[in-house]
Write a sequence for this structure.
């Protein structure tokens, strides 16, 4: 089944494995006339790139995006935009010693059963490497949104049981962050740095939560019933490797709220405001009936701990014999995948929103 | 934008408003040869139907499904199955007194802005009435799954801050529950009944959480990257009216787990087992890399409190003037929409799974 | 596989069998704000309805469309529009005597092999009865187009080897024909009437060709590569029962033309014309590179002879035994399906064009 | 609008312009386990490649396909297969002298109006260069079909008014032609060679017709109503640059046939034949009700004359001024695009059929 595309009008298709020569993305349906450069995409890729701090995977990719199509005289032409990124540092030789072992938490067992092929080298299509393509496409989506006055942002909300003290309302106002893809480890709190250090020294990994937010959206994005904006966002976020939970607005907190607390009453923002139906609170997270109501969208995505750990684990061989797995020395993995997922969440948010914006045209005569 | 369809091979399209004469669903792509009757669908609809206890909406629909196509000699023919349900008790006259008011928490504001049409009578397409069609289609999906040896189940997990004491592992084993659509209020704990009573007397409403589970699935359902089973489930669940959060497996708990705790180690189930790669734990909730791993799928869906409450609320008129909303006497609404969402969660789970089962054919040569 | 839907933004889904109680169509994605009534749809259905002359099938359906959803205060709301039509005159008892026979030219053999179900009563989903739903949806599409200044038309071009003397350029100018669905037998030439009479008396049937045309279209409808307007039209037309060929512009004549004859040179229409790049000729049929160029679209659809004939035919039983088929006395079939396909071709043309119009929004920034 | 993808389960997405550095195709949904090499794809590309005879465009591309993903140990893995082809000989400098002129028959006018971008260098996405990607993907589809016992073939049927004397029944039997992509100019008749020579010397171009055929197909490919096999084939063929007409079976000949001539009577093939319902004739071209009936599929595609001719043509500038177009000396174009479209027709045929084969799984319980 063809499952490597996302979106309806603005549709991305990604390809490539973590240990192949190149990976890439085709963006189909991007409106013509957008000025976009490889440099702008590379800026976005830097935030996601591994090897930048001691708390993300030491694998160091250059991640220089090359645009192969869809641009003429620096502008998009309406033709599909193919962007490729070299896998300059994919070392699969290290995997040979464990080439017959199922790896707990990884997809190599399910891929083997589904496709009858066992690619022992890294995660193949299940690898987080694929998310570089999402970030590249997200940079295009973010610029389209920016020209419509919409900014998106994602940031690390929680690692283990430590919540960051980020003020989300202030962050999204910060104009300088708009094209620079979302903050990550630069602003990690000392408590989180200490925790990550301890986890890493113990050869273990830990989960986390990423929060996302937008500036006030136009009313009307998202469609009734199965095309609800939260349904599209949930699908987008839960397709990120390691995602285990999704919330919009109050999310699971809603379960313990009263209607009289939860409902966002409509209030007049000011006399001149055309879209006068603002609300003082935003418990709903910017959508009513699945359609944006003019408030900012916000929500959270939970990530499991990194599956690859340095500790010995019990497992089976591909032929079903009991075995122990000890990753080879020098294996490179992040102790917390939530950190590097921050720009991916931001990218998927932008890709959903630009698609909804384009889909919304023609809602009425 | 066409947004009233869900699924790829097994695709449902629903239509009808809460206050129209009939609502309905077209199931396209159902395999031929399934024996299915209106009675079987009606059994499923009973669990969802309003007016059955004092804790769900007093609106009483007969909800007799009529199958208009796709069946010959009691069996599906491969042709689209159209099922219609009469709206026998849709009383829109009561809404006239509030026909120019935006209703907090409801979609009538966003629908007005998106479509420039204000249908004051109930929720239109945004109403939970639409979910009867999902349950009808879900009954077909559940029977298809049952013939493949797969059972699904959903049940109320939490209301307000009270968690039920249901043992999910035992429930799914209970064969009698397979075709009877998931338990709801019959098994509510006394503490929850008391809470609902208090909420109702206060004219307020409250949120809740629904949990879902399956029996052990075949390995291989779901597709890589954007077609992951959790992404499809998240989209399905977040399309249910009032859904604010989705989890699979440990969900948001994952954030505070170590990799060494979270990873489900592969273990040998027994000597003869062909699919020998079981695991002792199931923190992942039955999927690895977005593809089912042979364990049961389980997860949760959070619902906000019912938007309609008996208390006075501040709001605006459709022309932007400040106003107060007091629902007319005799307005009928559930104090907790999570309760009636139980069979809807179960239906969407079944619809996703049968679609994945059909999509999985042809994965390899 | 779900195959009963057509279109992307303006998407129709049809259901119902020729011998069931009702058939219907769900139109999803229709813009809100269109005033449309059951009467307008019924006017369109009249042109398609059987039983109106001695040259179309004596089966007489009332074909009163009932709109079940998607309309409020006479206007579309953006919600899916479900239209149902009763099968008031479906007499399946006559088919019982031939209930174990494969019928030459019919789909009952292929449906049996594909679905393992043999519905001997009429054509099921393969029956031309389904096209009533297309015509109903087409009436909505035609009205949307009309409000954009676009008119469509189809008419009988050829029966057997007799070509009609219709002047297509004059026809489309005739304003009164816009909502009245395309001419059919009212304007049949005496030569064709004589031919049809002879064919009917001989118990035989004959093929034909339908031509379609539009007024000048806006430039830009259709999309590059696989979304070309001619590709969409071809798919739409070849999905009509009995269609065997499709042409746009010069069609198969192009094979014997020189480039210097065929190319439509661009010429200045007049000084004030905004869309100044008209052409004197229109060999291409209104598209360049698959995208409308501002000229009228025109083309043809070839139909095979009606499969049901009164003559004895050799065939097999469903269990593979040699047999002869003689349709029961009083069996009702058109001698030439092309005649009744005229409004269906017109409807599919309109459905493709409104979808392309809605898809074209957002082509550039 | 995203329009660069084709197919549902086996889905191709092409990208790249005629004068960019590379073009490519992503094949998503190819079953795992197929052994396929770059060499096999290159053999298919040779038949399509320009510059091979004096009757096709002198532009000489090496057309060495490079597979970037989706293959491991020589076999498909279920992951998307990205194939890229270098544009080694794209010389856009010659177009500069005509960079402000609309070219009759070409898409640069409609692309300009749709996207507000004028790419004067060759045809961009509208160029026949894109079809190399289809042929590459078609080689994969053809191999999958071959392993299911299905062979496809296309060949030149007509140039101008000269029909070739190819016997289609004998051709498809020729096993050696299976993987070698369909014959083209090697077998051109002397009359056609003379005609092409004359056309070329006159600076003109000419149209043509390509015929396609398969070996006997399994019964059941294609779906009812809008998913009919002829509808899918028509869409596929009419998306090829320059296609103006499509026929299946008797096509437009059907219009002048009687039902008693046209109907293919079912006859017993032999005592042992499981699929015993063969027919002596095959006027329908292998489908009944849009679903394959076990006979070979065959049909035709008409192509217009090449738009680029050496003669002077009247046209307009991009700003609407009258002008004359004389292509620069050394411009490279085929006198008859039908010739080079032969392997493209074959590729699209194979892509449609493999998709239908995969879609057909799950038709019944």
């Amino acid at each position: 089944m063809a499952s490597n595309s996302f979106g309806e009008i603005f549709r991305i298709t990604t390809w490539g494995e973590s240990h192949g020569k190149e990976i890439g993305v085709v963006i189909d349906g991007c409106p013509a006339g957008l000025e976009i450069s490889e440099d702008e995409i590379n800026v976005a890729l830097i935030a996601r790139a591994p090897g930048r701090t001691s708390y993300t995977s030491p694998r160091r990719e250059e991640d220089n995006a090359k645009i192969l199509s869809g641009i003429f005289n620096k502008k998009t032409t309406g033709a599909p935009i193919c962007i490729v990124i070299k896998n300059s540092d994919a070392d699969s030789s290290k995997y040979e010693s464990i080439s017959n072992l199922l790896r707990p938490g990884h997809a190599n067992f399910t891929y083997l059963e589904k496709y009858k092929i066992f690619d022992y080298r890294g995660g193949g299509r299940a690898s987080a490497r694929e998310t570089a393509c999402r970030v590249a496409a997200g940079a295009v989506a973010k610029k389209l949104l920016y020209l419509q006055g919409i900014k998106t942002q994602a940031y690390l909300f929680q690692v283990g049981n430590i919540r960051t003290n980020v003020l989300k309302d202030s962050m999204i106002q910060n104009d300088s962050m708009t094209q620079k893809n979302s903050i990550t480890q630069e602003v990690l709190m000392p408590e989180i740095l200490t925790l990550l250090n301890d986890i890493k020294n113990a050869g273990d990994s830990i989960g986390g939560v990423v929060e996302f937010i937008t500036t006030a959206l136009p009313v009307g994005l998202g469609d009734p019933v199965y095309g609800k904006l939260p349904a599209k966002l949930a699908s987008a976020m839960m397709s990120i490797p390691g995602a285990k939970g999704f919330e919009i607005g109050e999310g699971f907190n809603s379960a313990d709220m009263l209607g009289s607390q939860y409902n966002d009453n409509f209030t007049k923002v000011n006399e001149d405001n055309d879209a006068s139906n603002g609300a003082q609170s935003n418990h709903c997270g910017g959508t009513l009936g699945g359609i944006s109501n003019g408030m900012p969208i916000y929500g959270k995505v939970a990530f499991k701990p990194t599956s690859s750990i340095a500790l010995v684990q019990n497992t089976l061989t591909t032929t079903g014999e009991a075995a122990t797995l000890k990753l080879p020395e020098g294996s490179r993995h992040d102790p917390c995948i939530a950190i590097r997922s921050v720009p991916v969440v931001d990218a998927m948010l932008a890709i959903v929103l630009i698609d909804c914006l384009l889909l919304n045209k023609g809602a009425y005569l």
User: Anything to note?
Assistant: Residues 175-185 of chain D have pLDDT under 50 and may be disordered.
